[in-house]
Amino acid sequence: MKAGRLFLAVESGGTRTIASIFSDEGELLGYSIGGPSSHHVVGVARSEETLKAVISDCMASVGLKDYVFEIGCFGMASLDTPKDFEIISEMVKSMNIIKNPIIVGDHVTAYYTVTGGRPGIVVIAGTGSMGYGRVKDGVEARAGGWEWLVSDEGSAYDIARRALVYAVRSYDGLEEKTSLLDKFMEHFKASSFEEFIQKLYEDPRKHRIASLATIVATAAYEGDNVARKILKVAGKELGLLAFSVAKKLRIENDPIMVGCVGGVFRSGPIIFNSFKSFIRKKMPKATIMEPVFSAIEGAMFLCLKEAGIQLSENLMKKIRLQVRKLDH
Fold first, then answer.
1. Tens-place pLDDT, residues 35-55
2. Exposure check for the chain: N or C terminus, fewer CB within 10 A?
3. CB 160, CB 227: distance < 8 Å
């Protein structure tokens, strides 16, 4: 392969980090996964450390050392302010591995993953959540994604927080009985309610709380009524994000693509079915895409687009098949 015709794509999130190296023909050559690298979740120092480690592993897997890529795309979670962009730009610059870096929010790479750049809407639901869309003339809109204190409805964090509230209220006799409290106590190895509360507050960081969403999903599929309600509400909230974006762009009655990306959709059909039901009522002409768990494909598409390579259906399909074989 000629120098300058290899590309690097990176997805940085609050749960995990992915790096891929691929050719101008869409051949996936290297693929590495690591832990969280969102600077809002793990801090700037650890974010940089994780990004460098995952990229280094990916490069080593294809025998690249001291290589400088012509183009690399970084899809970053929580890239919301000029300060965020400054932090990430400095981080990428310090790596000295990319001539022309593309740095965008992960909502942009998620959008390209779902639509390939065509008009449409994507909803991202991982540790946090957000809706984003774009139309033909390049006009864009977003909803949500304003972090856990005031936003992130339908996200893993939101699901876990709601479940914790229900579990505690159930213990106090304020809500119906649920298996959630027993499951949380087992997870924390707590022998009493008081010990559970103590251990919960020992580390209330966002990604730790968000990780508890898998417990909620387990309870839901075991038949717990409260857990099922929480997942259904999450699906509706994610549908609301898509509908809000559609109204802002005035495309709620248009035949557009609506897709969803992120680990929350790994939890099974309850959330996605609730999401679909809401979209079908509010946006009857929309085509609802099956969930995708990673936005790395969109980062790859953006690299190729920046390099002047046409994003044909065959090329995008080739990339999608390779990535989804690894990320399922």
1. 999 998 899 999 999 999 999
2. C
3. no
Q: What is the pTM of this model?
A: 0.88
Strand ranges in the chain using DSSP code E only, listed in sequence order:
6-12, 17-23, 28-34, 69-76, 98-105, 120-125, 129-134, 140-144, 257-261, 287-288
> How many Cβ atoms sit within 10 Å of the Cβ of residue 17?
24
Residue 147 to residue 79: CA distance in whole angstroms:
11
Give the tokens for residue 145: 């994604």
Taking 3-state DSSP, the helix, strand and coil percentages for the chain, each rounded to the nearest 5, stand at: 50, 20, 30
Strand partners, 142: 132
Q: How far apart are CA 273 and CA 259, in angstroms?
A: 13
Q: Taking the CA atoms of the chain, what radius of gyration do you get in angstroms?
A: 20
- For the domain made up of 6-106+295-326, give the CATH fold: Nucleotidyltransferase; domain 5 (3.30.420)
Q: What ranges do the domains of the chain cover?
A: 6-106+295-326
Q: In this structure, what token pair is assigned to residue 164? A: 């914790």
**What tens digit of pLDDT does each residue of 252-303 get?**
999 999 999 999 998 899 999 999 999 999 999 999 999 988 899 999 999 9
Contact status, residue 117 vs residue 301, Cβ threshold 8 Å? yes
